[in-house]
Amino acid sequence: MTTGPSGVVVLIGPMGAGKSTVGARLAALTGTDLVDTDLEIVRRTGRTIPDIFAADGEAGFRAIEQEVVVDVLGRGEGVVALGGGSVLSAVVRAALRDHHVVYLQVDPSVGFIRAHGGARPLLAAVDRDDARRRYEQILAERAELYRSLASQIVDGADAAESVAAAIDAHRRRAVAHDTTSGHDTTITRDRDRPTSESDADRQGAQHP
Ligand SMILES: Nc1ncnc2c1ncn2[C@@H]1O[C@H](COP(=O)(O)OP(=O)(O)O)[C@@H](O)[C@H]1O
Ligand SMILES: O=C(O)C1=C[C@@H](OP(=O)(O)O)[C@@H](O)[C@H](O)C1
Ligand SMILES: [Mg+2]
C-alpha cells in the first residue's frame, strides 16, 4: 500500500468493532505490518491485560497503554489496531493527528456479541445483562470521540475482508489525489479533503 506523507493507518472503535481482525486483514492485503497495541502491551510487560487491570486498575492500564500507543505511532508506518479505550488519553489523541484514522463503527448489538465472553476486563460482569448495559454505556460515552478523530468511518459490521478492502481503496485514492473516481459507500467522512460538494456539505453538517 502506498501510504502517503504519514504512513500509519490507525484503527479505532469500541471493543468488538473488529480492529484487531481487520488490522490483520489489512496488513496482509497491503503487505505491511500490523501492531495490535494490546498485544504489544502484553509483549512489553509480560502480563496479560486482565492481570494489569486487576493489579494496577484501569488507570494503571491506561498509563501503560498511552506510552505504548504513542511509541508505536511514532514508528510511522504500517497498520496499528488500538485498544478501544486508547482514545480516552489526550496525549494519544494528539498523537493521532497526523495519521489516517479509521473508525470501525458498530451498533452495540453487534459489538457486544463479538466482545463479550473474551478476556476484556471492562465487560467482566458476572451477569450478561449488566455486561451489555456496560458496553452500551461505554459506546455512548465514546461514540462522539471516535467520530471526531476519524478521517474515515467504515461499517464494522461488514465482513472483515470488505472492511479492509474499503480502507485500502480509500487510502489509495487519497494518495493518488484522485477526486474523480467516485465514492466508496462505506466512507461517510473524509476529514482532510472533501471528494465532492456533497461530502463538503455533509462535513459542514456534522461539524458546525
Ligand atoms: N467483520 C467481522 N465479521 C465477523 N466477525 C468479526 C469481524 N471482526 C471481528 N470479528 C470477530 O469479533 C471478535 C472481536 O474482534 P476483534 O478484532 O478482537 O475486535 P476489537 O479488536 O475491535 O475488539 C473476534 O472473535 C473476531 O473474530
Ligand atoms: O475499550 C476498552 O477500554 C478496552 C478495549 C480492549 O481492546 P479491544 O478494543 O481491542 O477489545 C482492551 O484494550 C482493554 O480490554 C480495554
Ligand atoms: Mg483488539
Automatic annotation (TrEMBL):
Q: Where is the composition biased (Basic and acidic residues)?
A: 186-208
Question: Known Gene3D superfamilies for this protein?
Answer: P-loop containing nucleotide triphosphate hydrolases
Q: Name one GO cellular component term.
A: cytosol
Q: Where in the cell is it found?
A: Cytoplasm
Q: In which pathway does it act?
A: Metabolic intermediate biosynthesis; chorismate biosynthesis; chorismate from D-erythrose 4-phosphate and phosphoenolpyruvate: step 5/7
Does this entry carry the keyword S-adenosyl-L-methionine?
no
Keywords carried by this UniProt record: Amino-acid biosynthesis, Aromatic amino acid biosynthesis, ATP-binding, Cytoplasm, Kinase, Magnesium, Metal-binding, Nucleotide-binding, Transferase
This entry's comment on the bound cofactor is: Binds 1 Mg(2+) ion per subunit.
Superkingdom to which the source organism belongs: Bacteria
Note the CDD domains from the entry. Answer: SK
PROSITE patterns linked to this entry? SHIKIMATE_KINASE
Query: Which InterPro entries is this protein grouped with?
Result: P-loop_NTPase, Shikimate/glucono_kinase, Shikimate_kinase/TSH1, Shikimate_kinase_CS
Its Gene Ontology biological processes? amino acid biosynthetic process; aromatic amino acid family biosynthetic process; chorismate biosynthetic process
Reactions catalysed, as given in the entry: shikimate + ATP = 3-phosphoshikimate + ADP + H(+)
- Binding positions for Mg(2+) per the UniProt entry: 20
Which residue ranges are recorded for the region named Disordered?
Answer: 171-208
E.C. no: 2.7.1.71
| Described function | Catalyzes the specific phosphorylation of the 3-hydroxyl group of shikimic acid using ATP as a cosubstrate.
Protein name stated in the entry: Shikimate kinase
Species in which this protein is naturally found: Gordonia jinhuaensis
